[in-house]
Write a structure and sequence with these properties.
This protein is an all-alpha fold. The protein has 5 helices and 3 strands, in the order E-H-E-E-H-H-H-H. It folds into 2 domains: 108 residues, no CATH class; 152 residues, no CATH class. Helix 3 packs across helix 4.
């Protein structure tokens, strides 16, 4: 329940609740009161009838039954009651005057508070007007600056447009360069693969060539040995012919008349050189051109443990039959084909 301060006879007693204020005979709806909560300010002093709880308490007091009248007392002496009556009248007059004066002061304070609010509002409005003027001046200056820059804006837009066109051209050139770089990278990888294949094929060809050269050397050696053997056989046949000529001169004369005698050959004829396949010198690996290598050429399986297939036989240089063979034929014709007379 709210409690109130009350102004009575120039004093501020309290604080009281609404029931206590209603029980006081000197307190009515026109008495100035102030809520006890908060500060005691001039603007908080109002008539008691303005507060709902106090007005309800006063109405309940007025509706209460009147007390029975007291028995009439004997009339006092006029000489004795005159000073007391005069003092009561003066006191009542002072109370009424004080109440009116305080009410007037309260109204003046309210008006002063309103004036203060109006003054503060006017001051605030003046300050806002000054701020708006400053903002307007700044806006005008900014607008003037923007108008000055409008002339440069067209030039800047043209420069930006040219820069955009140049940027697009550079982007297109960059894309073309990236595409060309990718193609070159693919070509580089292809050439490197072809080069590796060419190196591998060149190595295999070198191995095949070395194997063929070894086979050629082996065949040449065998042919040389055979030529030596034939030369020895020829020498033996000639000695045998000489012996047969001494033993059977008739057969030698018949053969001499039928065929002209061949000139004598040396006992150890020089071996006939065997024709070898021309061997091309192997080129260095770095000189292999990738463009001359066919990437789809079939590879021949080759290992060091399993050599490649035997190369085709070498065709010797055509020559006349060896002398040892001719001598052997003549010898057989001479002594085995002649019929005795």
């Amino acid at each position: 329940m709210m409690r109130y301060w009350v102004y009575l006879q120039g004093e501020v007693p309290g604080s009281f609740d609404p029931a206590e204020l209603a029980a006081m005979p000197d307190v009515g709806p026109g008495t100035l009161v102030c809520p006890a909560e908060g500060e005691i300010l001039e603007k908080n002093w109002r008539s008691a009838g303005e507060f709902p709880d106090l007005a309800a308490a006063f109405q309940a007091r007025d509706r209460a039954p009147a007390r029975p009248a007291a028995l009439p007392s004997p009339a006092p002496d006029a000489s004795e009651t005159a000073p007391e009556q005069a003092a009561a009248d003066v006191e009542k007059f002072l109370d009424n005057s004080s109440s009116k004066l305080f009410r007037h002061v309260s109204e003046l304070m309210r008006e002063l508070e309103v004036r203060r609010d109006e003054r503060s509002l006017a001051t605030s409005l003046q300050r806002q007007v000054a701020e708006l003027k400053d903002a307007l001046q700044k806006s005008r200056e900014k607008a003037a600056l923007l108008e000055d820059r409008m002339a440069v804006l067209t030039t800047l837009e043209d420069a930006v447009r040219k820069n955009e066109i140049h940027t697009r051209g550079l982007e297109e050139a960059l894309k073309k360069s990236e595409t060309a770089g990718a193609e070159l990278h693919v070509k580089h990888e292809t050439c490197r693969t072809e080069l590796e294949n060419a190196k591998r094929r060149l190595t295999e060809a070198g191995n095949d060539l070395s194997i063929r050269n070894r086979l050629v050397d082996k065949l040449s050696k065998e042919l040389t040995e055979r030529d030596l053997a034939l030369a020895k056989a020829l020498a033996v046949i000639r000695r045998f012919e000489e012996e047969m000529g001494r033993i059977c001169p008739e057969a030698a004369d018949i053969e001499g008349r039928s065929e002209p005698r061949q000139p004598s050959l040396p006992l150890q004829p020089e071996p006939r050189p065997v024709a070898q396949a021309p061997v091309q010198p192997s080129a260095p690996v770095a000189s292999v051109e990738p463009s001359l290598v066919t990437p789809d050429a079939p590879r021949r399986p080759y290992t060091t443990d399993d050599p490649p297939s035997t190369p085709p036989p070498l065709t010797p240089v055509p020559a006349t039959p060896p002398e040892a063979q001719n001598a052997l034929v003549r010898f057989l014709r001479k002594y085995f084909s002649v019929t005795p007379h």
